[in-house]
């Protein structure tokens, strides 16, 4: 079956789980990837690039599990990334095989600087490799995407040649990456226009774009590409990714949604058409943003467009007066349109397990009985401390439960003593992987510093705390505090997250979570080293 290009709307290709995860400190385990993949499916993305299967056994397993679980007939296309080599492509094919709609995305560099210094190959060699590997990928799946890496700095004439032979070999999508975030909107739009005008068989494939935000131009570049014929946008939730990140999905989708009248003519529609330009359920945007932020440990800046804490806040007196009279005076979209509803009171201390379960389903959570029981216990504990519980509170405690790190060490007790005339002192008790309880104490410059020093005395793993952040989930003195931290060990970064009405307890739990992730990674490294030694 040959796929026919779709030109009547924008295809949203989400690479949060592949390019987004390559951001330092954003490493996700297989279960966390699956949680995000399920949310991406609810969000309505067309394609999920689930990972780079050849990169590691863990990545392969995660892609395969996502393909089997999320890649249903009515779900998104599941894509695996592969370099233009047989071993990469075969691994990707095996990983995405369980999906109803599998895709292999293969790439090779085309810019002269990459050819000379990275590949050490000539243009002629690459021109031969590309169609050969596309054809090899085509032997496994009907849906093949080809990317000329660093297209933004490639010679256009060479780009036209390699795209033509890739399409002739079976590529159904050709992706044009601005790999280093170098181009400007006019240049990028011109590049797409040049491809449409100079690649003879371009009508047989969908033009896609992928871009990084090194100059803060990724979203603007993509919108210019749309005006010139691009119909697939490769993006990530919150714009996470290598270096300065990728084009942000929420910004692209809402730009196309809010400015439909401007973009409709580029799709052959009358300006007044209200038909959506993407199939994204915009009401799932905020929840998707929060989930990815919590699981990756990558915080969203307050002034971030669409999903930042201040995106719909108005402090200026003139602005407040206008908004109270008519929201349209200063708001071009409703907070409700991205799923940011009013902070309504939904449950209380007398609510039962059934009501709690129903509310979770309404919020889009699908929990196992075990996770539901743990979340319900947390809910009851919170209900004893907070009189009024909001949807945001529920999301915070549920996200905290489903994203727990490997349970190498368990925090059993944390107690602090501090004050303006006292030496901050902390006592902690941790349960070890062997079930033994260890208690230690330390002093520090503050309560959190004392806690972390005490934990370090128990979990003796060298690390450097590089980021510590506390955010309030809702307003009020009894609000849940979410703590996100990042620790560094050698050249790798690990994140930890926890939520609690007591930010001291949340700080301790977040640190233990990060150290558990670090401990898991070290354990895997030891097992891998033992395996390599045994093989030798």
UniProtKB/TrEMBL annotation:
MF term (GO), any: 2-isopropylmalate synthase activity
Cross-referenced PROSITE patterns, in alphabetical order?
AIPM_HOMOCIT_SYNTH_1 (PS00815), AIPM_HOMOCIT_SYNTH_2 (PS00816), PYR_CT (PS50991)
* Pathway assignment: Amino-acid biosynthesis; L-leucine biosynthesis; L-leucine from 3-methyl-2-oxobutanoate: step 1/4
Record SUPFAM superfamilies: 2-isopropylmalate synthase LeuA, allosteric (dimerisation) domain, Aldolase
| Pfam family membership, one | LeuA_dimer
Pyruvate carboxyltransferase domain: residues covered? 10-286
> Keyword set for this entry?
Acyltransferase, Amino-acid biosynthesis, Branched-chain amino acid biosynthesis, Cytoplasm, Leucine biosynthesis, Manganese, Metal-binding, Transferase
Q: Does the keyword Transferase apply?
A: yes
State where Mn(2+) binds: 19, 210, 212, 246
Q: Under which main EC class is this enzyme filed? A: transferase
Q: Which reaction does it catalyse?
A: 3-methyl-2-oxobutanoate + acetyl-CoA + H2O = (2S)-2-isopropylmalate + CoA + H(+)
- List the EC numbers from the record: 2.3.3.13
Family annotation (InterPro entries) = 2-IPM_HCS-like, 2-isopropylmalate_synth_dimer, AIPM/Hcit_synth_CS, Aldolase_TIM, LeuA/HCS_post-cat, LeuA_allosteric_dom_sf, LeuA_bact_synth, PYR_CT
Cofactor(s) needed = Mn(2+)
Q: Region Regulatory domain: which residues?
A: 410-536
Task: State how it assembles.
Answer: Homodimer.
Q: Which PANTHER family match?
A: 2-ISOPROPYLMALATE SYNTHASE 1, CHLOROPLASTIC-RELATED, HOMOCITRATE SYNTHASE-RELATED
Family designation: Belongs to the alpha-IPM synthase/homocitrate synthase family. LeuA type 1 subfamily.
* NCBIfam families for the chain: leuA_bact (TIGR00973), PRK00915.1-3 (NF002086), PRK00915.1-4 (NF002087)
Function per UniProt? Catalyzes the condensation of the acetyl group of acetyl-CoA with 3-methyl-2-oxobutanoate (2-ketoisovalerate) to form 3-carboxy-3-hydroxy-4-methylpentanoate (2-isopropylmalate).
- What is the name attached to this protein's record? 2-isopropylmalate synthase
């Amino acid at each position: 079956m040959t796929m026919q290009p779709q030109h009547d709307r924008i295809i949203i290709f989400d690479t949060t789980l592949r390019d987004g995860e390559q951001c330092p400190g954003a490493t996700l385990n297989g279960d966390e990837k699956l949680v995000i993949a399920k949310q991406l499916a609810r969000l309505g993305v067309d394609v999920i690039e689930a990972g780079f299967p050849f990169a590691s056994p863990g990545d392969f397993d995660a892609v395969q599990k996502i393909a089997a679980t999320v890649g249903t007939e009515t779900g998104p296309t599941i894509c695996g990334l592969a370099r233009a080599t047989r071993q990469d492509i075969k691994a990707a094919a095996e990983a995405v095989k369980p999906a109803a709609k599998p895709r292999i995305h293969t790439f090779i560099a085309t810019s002269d600087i990459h050819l000379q210094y990275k590949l050490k190959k000539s243009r002629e060699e690459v021109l031969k490799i590309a169609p050969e590997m596309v054809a090899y990928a085509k032997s496994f799946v009907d849906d093949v995407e080809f990317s000329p890496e660093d297209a933004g700095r490639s010679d256009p004439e060479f780009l036209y040649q390699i795209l033509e032979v890739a399409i002739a070999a079976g590529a159904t999508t050709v992706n044009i990456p601005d790999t280093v975030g170098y181009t400007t909107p006019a240049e990028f739009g011109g590049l797409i226009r040049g491809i449409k005008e100079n690649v003879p068989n371009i009508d047989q494939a969908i033009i896609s774009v992928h871009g990084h935000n090194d100059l803060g131009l990724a979203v603007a570049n993509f919108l210019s590409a749309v005006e010139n014929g691009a119909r697939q946008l490769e993006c990530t939730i919150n714009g996470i990714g290598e270096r300065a990140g990728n084009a942000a999905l929420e910004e692209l989708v809402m730009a196309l949604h809010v400015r439909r009248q401007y973009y409709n003519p580029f799709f052959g529609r009358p300006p007044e058409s209200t038909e959506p330009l993407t199939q994204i359920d915009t009401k799932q945007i905020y929840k998707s943003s929060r989930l990815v932020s919590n699981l990756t440990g990558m915080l969203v800046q307050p002034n971030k467009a669409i999903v930042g804490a201040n995106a719909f806040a108005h402090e200026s007196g003139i602005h407040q007066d206008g908004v109270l009279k008519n929201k349209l005076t200063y708001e071009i979209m409703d907070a409700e349109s991205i799923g940011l509803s009013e902070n309504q009171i939904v449950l209380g201390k007398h609510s039962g397990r059934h009501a709690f379960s129903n509310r979770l389903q309404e919020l889009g959570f699908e929990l196992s009985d075990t996770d539901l029981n743990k979340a319900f216990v947390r809910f009851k504990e919170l209900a004893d401390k907070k009189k009024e519980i909001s949807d945001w509170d529920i999301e915070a405690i549920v996200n905290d439960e489903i994203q727990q790190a490997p349970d190498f060490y368990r925090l059993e007790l944390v107690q602090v003593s501090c004050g303006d005339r006292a030496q901050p002192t902390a006592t902690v008790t941790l349960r070890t992987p062997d079930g033994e309880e260890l208690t230690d104490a330390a002093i520090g410059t503050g309560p959190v510093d004392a806690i972390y020093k005490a934990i370090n005395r128990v979990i003796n793993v060298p690390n450097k705390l590089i980021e510590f952040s506390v955010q309030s989930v809702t307003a009020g003195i009894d609000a849940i505090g979410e703590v996100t931290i990042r620790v560094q060990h050698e050249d790798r970064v690990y994140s930890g997250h926890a939520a609690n009405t007591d930010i001291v307890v949340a700080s301790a739990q977040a640190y233990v979570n990060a150290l558990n992730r670090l401990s898991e990674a070290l354990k895997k490294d030891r097992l891998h080293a033992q395996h390599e030694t045994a093989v030798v």
